[in-house]
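Reopening this one. Same input as before:
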Amino acid sequence: MTVSRKFDAVIIGTGQAGPSLAARFSSAGMTVAIIERHKFGGTCVNTGCIPTKTLVASAYAAHVARRGAEYGFAVNGDVRVDMKRVKARKDEVSGRSNKGVEEWLRGLKNCTVIQGHARFQSSHTVVVNDEVLQADKIFINVGGRASVPGMPGTRDVSFLTNSSMMDVDFLPEHLIIVGGSYIGLEFGQMYRRFGSEVTIVEMGPRLIGREDEDISEAVRQILGAEGIQIRLNAKCITLAKSDSGIGVRIQCDEGPPEAVGTHVLLAVGRVPNTNDLGLDRAGVATDQRGYILADEQLQTNVPGIWALGDCNGRGAFTHTSYNDYEIVADNLLNGDHRRVSDRIQTYALFIDPPLGRCGMTDAEIRKSGRAALATKYPMSRVSRAVEKGDTHGFIKISVDAETKHILGAAILGTGGDEVVHVLLDVMYAKAPYTVIQRAMHIHPTVAEYLPTVLSKLETFA
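Same output, byte for byte:
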């Protein structure tokens, strides 16, 4: 096939990095082709952040309504959730973002929007809809999807993933979630608050295994208090049809050997959407899991090809994908020298109350061998949390004993996903923790307690 059109840049995928990169190139006078084979906006807009957090908000409203007596009001009758209306609200919010991304791209000067499945023909050419596009610069931003493990029974019974959950407009009687990490926990609490019975099955000895043990345990207690059944150490999971629905056979240290529910959600990780891009024709290298290998500036092993977002294995969050765009754009257009290693790991778990995390975990600090100080403060002593009637969780912060720089923090509690940024910004400034300790914050907030928490630093154990 001969080349049909030539561009300065070709971008494959419209997740968080692609559209912003197209806009920067467009404003710089470059000609750009951006290709999308499914829904504009990628995971975040269509099956991730925006729709799920919209569902979380609906679940939170129902939860607070049921607790009305604690706040001094009454709701006549039971709180009944209309899942069709919940889904319609989610679809409207998500659809608005999806439409906004598409309209934005189609309105850019010098930008050609193409819908179709892109595949590499060579290191400088891409085939889409039987048309060959050529560019000296090609950017891969194809995201990822739910991993479907090869556990016994997945071919025999119906199951849900985070994507197919977006089509659910009914209330599962008993939702069994395989996977006790971020996606599984958010859906678990959400559907429990909608009114489903929920069982979470985790192969590991604790929930969210990458977190410190005290966080895992606190999250388990929060979910358990809402009536969610949690089964840990499930070493051999099998799905099978049951007279009353779907059975999940489990080998656990405690509890019955099988959990029977009406629906199963698999939330056991993600895989990159790289298997059908023809990467071998371009010579682009991947690891054993299919993630594209990229260097500190997101360049692949092939000159002129970059990998951004979830498909490069350097972060599976919307904010890391957007930061990938910023790194690439600044380096190419501003002559900067930004690197992936410049950023500080940070993310949130959006259960209620949320977890905000930044920097190193306790385990990472111990492994580093550095001298550190640490502090931990219960949310039950934070007046803002008491006033809101949500005292679950704690604030914990670790700092370098010599430099006084903040090493890491976890805020599990009301406002934790926002308050953590106070610490994060000081970490980026490479300023000592005393900057926060001596700052005056607004009362009554959670952030105002950070100076108090930091005044209680002790030798890290």
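So the earlier flakiness isn't reproducible anymore. For the record, Residues 176 and 310 are 27 Å apart (CA to CA).
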